[in-house]
Amino acid sequence: MDGEFVKSGNNTEVEIRFGNNKNQKYHAERHIKNETNLNVDYAKNEIKKDFIKQADKTKQSYSIKIDGYKIEYRPFRLSDGSYNIGRITIVE
């Protein structure tokens, strides 16, 4: 499954994905599944919305609070201009 195209702050479409295959998706989602009671799709959608709002998309990591959980995520810009969020962790 490819990523989802979403509007960025400057009204251009940006593709954001959470891995390109089953193994990569598992690694991106595992901390949400194992360490929270959040719905994975809900958490990923909140992360996407947060990343889109970021003016500086060059930082190595970002953090967001979702339903009381502090979550850190790491996007990586791919050569085609899309972003892969491959690491999501819960911050204690």
UniProtKB/TrEMBL annotation:
Q: What is this protein called?
A: Uncharacterized protein
Organism of derivation: Campylobacter majalis
Give the organism's phylogenetic lineage. Bacteria, Pseudomonadati, Campylobacterota, Epsilonproteobacteria, Campylobacterales
